[in-house]
Amino acid sequence: MNQLFQSAKDITTTLTKAGHTCYFAGGCVRDQLLGIEAKDYDIATSATPSQVLQLFPNSDSIGAHFGVILVKHHGFAFEVATFRTDGSYTDGRRPESVTFSSPEEDASRRDFTVNGLFQIPNSGEIIDYVNGQSDIEERVIRAIGDPNKRFDEDALRLMRAIRFATKLNFEIEPQTWQAIQSNAHLLKNIATERIQAEFSLILLSPHRAAGLDLLVKSGLIQHFLPEVLNLIGCEQPPQFHPEGDVYVHTCMMLDMLEGEVTLELVLAVLLHDIGKPATYSYDPEEDRIRFSGHDSLGAEMAETILKRLKYSNKTIEEVCAMVANHMNFMNVRFMKKSKVKRFMARPTYELEMELHRVDCASSNGITENYDFLRAKEEEFAAEPLIPEPLVRGQDLIQLGYSPGPQFKEILQAVQTEQLEGKLTDSAQAVEWVKANY
Ligand code: ATP
Ligand code: MG
């Protein structure tokens, strides 16, 4: 039996032996019914926070105010939460207060029926106050109680609804869906960090394209990433993009990403053509649509967007590099060896390959550039793409050159010759510098 589950059960055994009611709650029950391995176990109990602390003195009591104790066991941490009712939500974000209550009331404060289930740890019996089991069977996300009221209480649930629908590949029940649409504007009350976290989880789900579409159709995306809406109806040259407009193209790419993806890759796919609407031009003589400079404008826009959404500097840097470089794949077959090596040595190269693969696979079907680079990888595999330099700044000083802007130029030029295979040792390189500079 798995360690995490066993550890969770140990905790519930201790609580039960001390006379408290205690259940597994929320996501772990849902996942188990779906045959998905739970990634954590949340425990709900009649024990008050101080009673929980008494039984598990090594716990983190930082959330005790909200009825939550973080119990550590076998290197895992478990949220042990007292059955509670949330007080009023005056700011639409977090309850003013919590009141300890019955399991039934605790179930009804939760967001969606599929997240409102309890399970008795020992017997595995499900306790269902919210009709969550039938919604899991029917694969439906349904708000518990009046959906309008529930989204009004806490607008993060708008994003969570889309997140669970995407992650679980469930439909959103019509009344819940309507309430999402009519309350979409409440997202303005939610901290950017929390919207971003939900958005990232949506993008990391395999059904991310459907998730993006839900964000668009619900009206939610307008409140944090309106730029994507301009991709809809942005026509592309049919000779290169038979699949349709930029939005369709982007969604297809999101769907074509295979296996485990990084957040940076998905964001780069999402934003790679974000500069197209603003650079659209039609040349009647050639009868051709162009998007000149959409890669560099796209990189600038990506930076603005990702900064606004408070992504990390590393994420922003990587995504912008990928967006800026995505059109250069067209040129790789005509690049000098040194340029190809530098292209391949960029830190985002492997991610860019995947972006390029799906960029072509969703449109023109061209694979030449991808195949060319894969072949080059083999050809260059014997040694590092960028080997140790033959000449360094120190050497130039010894040769009598004085440090300055020319230094970089000389070193770069020597490296180019080295990457081309024309210079192979330092003595040769020194002679070459003397002859050329
Ligand atoms: P995941 O597997 O993605 O962690 P989860 O269902 O465990 O999904 P969490 O965000 O970890 O989701 O929350 C745990 C439980 O707490 C949920 O299942 C739900 O019952 C409840 N919950 C969390 N956030 C909210 C919210 N904003 N409003 C109401 N209930 C919530
Ligand atoms: Mg969870």
UniProtKB/TrEMBL annotation:
Protein name listed in UniProt: CCA tRNA nucleotidyltransferase
- The answer, when asked if Nucleotidyltransferase is one of the entry's keywords, is yes
Q: Which SUPFAM superfamilies match?
A: Nucleotidyltransferase, Poly A polymerase C-terminal region-like
What family does the database annotate? Belongs to the tRNA nucleotidyltransferase/poly(A) polymerase family.
Q: Show the InterPro entries listed in the entry.
A: Bact_CCA-adding_enz_type3_sf, HD/PDEase_dom, HD_domain, HDIG_dom, NT_sf, PolA_pol_head_dom, PolyA_RNA-bd
Entries under CDD domains matching the protein: HDc, NT_ClassII-CCAase
- Write down the superkingdom of origin: Bacteria
